[in-house]
Amino acid sequence: MKRMKINYLYTDERIKINGKDYLGSTSNAKSRLSTYFNLNTLKLANMPTDKAILKYGHSNFDF
């Protein structure tokens, strides 16, 4: 069975730190979310979303 792709928007809506939204897609939302909350994985990743989370912190974003 083929997995359904999920599109999502990660935004700094709460306080508008940098005014950017981060768009992504995944076929495994649980895995993707666990990546965003694993500091070691974030440090190794090279995606804009990961860099923003490290720079501004999780509490400044809505998912």
UniProtKB/TrEMBL annotation:
This is GIY-YIG domain-containing protein. Keywords: Mitochondrion. It comes from Mutinus fleischeri. InterPro entries: GIY-YIG_endonuc_sf. It comes from the Eukaryota.
